[in-house]
User: Fold Extracellular solute-binding protein from Breznakiella homolactica.
Amino acid sequence: MAVLKKLGPWVVLVSLAAAMLVSCGNSNKNQSSGGSGEEQKVLTIYTPAREELINLVIKGFEEETGIKTEIIAAGMGELMKRLEAEKANPLADVIWGGSPSLLIPKRELLEDYVSPNEITQLEGHKNDEGYLTRFNSTPSVLIINTNLIGNIKVEGYADLLNPALKGKIVHSDPASSGSAYNHVINMLYAMGKNGDPNSPEAWDYVDKFIRNLNGKVAGSSSSAYKGVADGEYVVGLTYEGPVIDLIAAGAPVKVIYMKEGVIFKDAAAAVVKGAKHPNNARRFIDYCISVDVQNRMGTELGVRPVARGAGVSDLMTPIEEITTIKEDIMWPVDNKNMVVEKYSDLFATAQSK
Assistant:
């Protein structure tokens, strides 16, 4: 049973987030770091994950360990601010979600931990840093409302500059939404000259894209895809998982993998430095990357698992059929402030005209 609790006015206003109190626990089938038996059976998790993923993972975790978990759900930007503000006395035990490019700059807030279940992780998705455990890989995508799109062609980023779509596109704020920031990085790489994300051509595209938003910005990552599914917008910039879930539920939406190229971003989890329940946090991470849970993520939700042998939904396009872009993982890390500030300046300029 989940009980909703507001995170705080400053978070709710920006990200429309809520904190969910959920009962939780761990797998008998996977290896686990275990615990000393001295910790209380409680765990506080900060996460940007959508409700469907939270429900699937948390329910199973409770049934197998009896650990009661407090879930604080918000955008990554807000969660990282909260971790920073609380570093002298952390309230969170684990951060669950967000790409490595968002977590690496906050290394000092994270505890070293490598799960014994890393043995089943696919190459390219391993915890090479010693503190970031990947639990899925997600591409940035476009979502379109099939009832509203009509004859408008949308195959990629270039099509989002169509005047017929002005004011009908929704994108979240990259300053507070991890998925929105990932999309900005994706478009910079895809539209930049010779793949240069900081080229004049890249930023010229972003400027034109922002002008076609006509001032529309979603209050959170979920507001973007929900807004399209509910018919408030024709097109949205989001990530793959929730679109696949909406399609499976019969919503009038379609997923578009940008023809100019798609970046796949891993989502990672980490133990918070100074956590009050570190053993429970480690057990949760072990659970998330167990093959059984990874298989459930892949087959029951629109999530691409990173464990060998885990299945995926039939609604997902095979990665071999998607034009992919290989990014320099450190570029979004080293240039986050610049990218967010430049995007915000362009948005403000567009609003003033």
